[in-house]
Design brief:
alpha/beta, TIM Barrel, Rossmann fold, Immunoglobulin-like, 9-stranded mixed β-sheet, 8-stranded parallel β-sheet, 17 helices, 29% helix, binds zinc ion
Length: 674
């Protein structure tokens, strides 16, 4: 029986300590720390076993203990934690700079032909794995830890070290390619991802041989940049979400995907303003907002902090986190074990991501664009990988495929059956096998169109031709900064046409290629279909002929968002949940036993010249209306947390429950009991 990995009142304490620092942990008091943490209801902490410099913080017989550390910190902290009922997860960083210096032959090697391939850390394919990592893990696993949190336990760059070359040569009989556009490169990156998974399995096996209850998590593994189903051995998914732009937006993006993987997952935020490279204090309102987003999307919260260089913790920070823990406590019980109600599925396919990315880290622009766009339309949706969609497609009312290539035959068959049986499908741009060739034959029947050719101009115009698509849009050609694919209609009906952009350059003067000097202006002599509607079996499909989601990610164009929303209204005039509000709010619809849980999150934030986006003051949102499709009268509608003022009214009219919410501050949960 494994440990359970539940809880939201968790803190990660970072403690990377330079090897020459003699006062290491001189002021660390495990008893005081545990007492302070117990007082604020903290359930679990991530505690350093090994930092990025390669310093170990336990009495290791096989590894490199911090040269000035006189104590066994891991032992002291696990012992002190028992008394207070706080769980310890050991943090282990695999970069191991000590061994990079001591044994340069173990180092990761980049090459000049492949951009951004150089890095300072040990290679996981080197003998370091057997000589250092596994023996050290055996030692850590004998301590009373609930879990081990790994940092960088995956290949995030291509490696050309002699160990990688040798292993690759043994399997494929040629050297690791350096041309990132070649087929050999695809073979190589696939092999590297497979090696990564083998190493994770080996690590889990080693730990579980010593203590089968220890849960293993790998920071950033199996999230959207590696959208594969995690192995069974992985106990929890975890990531310290990027905080250099908008933490809440990132948290929402990852959570909507991770909740479909059927594993507990943590999203780590910090108390800092600029992520880890910082000692500032984030406003409590921002911290609460980030945790609300995580909880409302089915995730678990963990807040990151640093110990001071001498090992002391900052009591004022603990006080602020206490305030956030109170906010969490009022919400976590009601949301515990709740799951997302399938409504709209957004596909984030692994193969597509690797084609567009470098084969090691996925490309996510279109998925992120779809995420932000749907969120700002108050829509409830999940993000699924191929496997997730194949298994669950029939539960969804609408499937969205945002510029995804190289879909598997199994998925394509599933999609066809789904639409035939009455499903709704929205697909944008090119879904061919490769970037080079237009060969998306499978879309022909479904969308009633054929793809002609792709342009790479990077802009064009959309002209909505039917009133349903013109709703809330200016009556002018809509500029779209994206590539288009030309289509020919077979059975489809045109919803919008494309106008070409003016591109002729007549003189040799400068500036003629500037968008402000005529280039890119619409031309009106020819119109081509670009957004089409088709019926297939009992279902309906909409095709969008441009990279509309990627364009939304890059340019935030409200007119593109309106076009997509109008297309969704055409496909799904009746929605399970519809929320109208004077300002966008994040909406999630969860189900727990006989109750629906509608989460509403205020999405205001402050304006800034520089990121990160911080919310110090959050204005209330008033007059929110929710329509939930319900085929029987609800027994009751409650609002959580009970001690916050919300002002709600509700009525049921036979098949819809209408709820009016008079006031939303950060996060409210409406519980509909059926
Ligand atoms: Zn290597």
């Amino acid at each position: 029986m494994k440990n359970s990995y539940k809880g939201n009142r968790k803190i990660h304490f970072d403690y990377h300590t330079p090897p020459d620092f003699q006062e290491v942990a001189s002021s660390f008091e495990p008893e005081t720390l545990m007492k302070d943490l117990a007082e604020i209801g903290c359930e679990l902490i991530n505690f350093f076993a090994k930092d990025l410099f390669g310093n170990c913080y336990w009495n290791t017989k096989v590894g490199h203990k911090h040269p000035y550390l006189k104590r066994d910190l891991l032992k002291e902290v696990t012992e002190a934690s028992k008394k207070y009922g706080i769980k310890i997860v050991a943090y282990y960083n695999v970069m191991d700079l000590y061994n990079v210096q001591a044994h340069p032959e173990l180092k990761h090697r980049g090459c000049k032909e492949v951009q951004n391939s150089e890095g300072d850390y040990v290679c996981l394919n080197s003998p370091w794995l057997e000589k250092v990592l596994l023996p050290e893990l055996k030692e850590i696993s004998s301590y009373e830890v609930s879990g081990i949190f790994f940092d960088f336990l995956y290949f995030h760059q291509p490696c050309f070290c002699k160990w990688c070359e040798q292993k690759f040569m043994d399997e494929f009989s040629y050297e690791i390619p350096k041309d990132t556009k070649s087929n050999e490169w695809k073979t190589y990156t696939k092999w590297l991802r497979k090696r990564g998974n083998e190493i994770v399995r080996k690590v889990c096996e080693t730990i579980h041989e010593v203590n089968s209850k220890i849960l293993v998590g790998v920071n950033w593994a199996y999230v959207q940049r590696q959208p594969e189903t995690p192995p069974d051995d992985i106990g929890f998914i975890t990531l310290d979400v990027n905080e250099t732009d908008c933490t809440s937006l990132n948290a929402s993006y990852y959570a909507k995907y991770l909740r479909t993987l059927n594993k507990p997952f943590d999203i780590m935020t910090t108390r800092f303003l600029h992520w880890w490279g910082d000692w500032a204090l984030k406003p409590v309102t921002t911290m609460k907002h980030e945790c609300a987003v995580i909880l409302a999307n089915g995730g678990q919260c963990i807040i990151g902090d640093h110990f001071y260089i001498d090992g002391k913790h900052e009591k004022e920070v603990i006080k602020n986190i206490s305030n956030v823990f109170d906010f969490i406590s009022k919400r976590e019980t009601i949301l515990d074990e709740a799951s997302s109600v399938p409504f709209i599925a957004v596909l984030h396919s692994a193969e597509n991501s690797y084609i567009k990315g470098n084969g090691i880290v996925a490309d996510e622009k279109s998925t992120r664009g779809a995420h932000k766009l749907f969120l700002e339309c108050n829509l409830h949706f999940d993000i699924l990988n191929e496997e997730g969609l194949i298994s669950n497609i029939d539960k969804y009312s609408l499937v969205v495929i945002p510029e995804q290539m190289d879909l598997s035959e199994t998925l394509i068959t599933k999609i066809k059956d789904y639409v035939k049986a009455g499903g709704k499908l929205l697909l944008s741009y090119d879904s061919s096998k490769t970037k080079e060739e237009l060969d998306a034959q499978w879309t022909k029947e479904l969308f009633g169109i054929s793809l002609k050719n792709k342009d790479s101009l990077g802009f064009g115009y959309i002209v909505p031709e039917v009133s349903d698509l013109q709703k809330n849009l200016p009556r002018m050609p809509i500029f779209c900064r994206s590539n288009f694919v030309d289509i020919e209609e077979k059975t489809a009906k045109t919803l919008a046409s494309k106008l070409d952009a003016y591109t002729t350059i007549t003189s040799k003067q400068g500036w003629e290629g500037w968008l402000g000097a005529g280039i890119g202006s619409p031309t009106f002599d020819r119109r081509y279909p670009t957004i089409t509607l088709n019926e297939f079996g009992n279902g309906k499909t909409v095709f969008l002929g441009c990279e509309i989601f990627k364009a939304y990610f890059e340019y935030n164009d409200w007119t593109l968002r309106t076009i997509v929303m109008n297309a969704i209204d055409l496909l799904l005039p009746e929605k399970v949940i519809e929320v109208s509000s004077p300002y966008p709010i994040e909406v999630t619809l969860l189900k727990k036993e006989e109750s629906y849980l509608i989460n509403l999150i205020n999405w205001h934030s402050e304006r800034a010249y520089k990121t990160p986006i911080i919310t110090e003051n959050l204005p209330e949102i008033n007059n929110i209306t929710i329509n939930l499709t319900l085929d029987k009268a609800p027994k009751n509608v409650l609002v959580h947390p009970e001690d916050e003022e919300h002002k709600i009214e509700w009525q049921w009219n036979g098949n819809k429950l209408k709820i009016r919410v008079g006031k939303l501050h950060i996060h409210s949960i409406l519980e509909v009991r059926t």
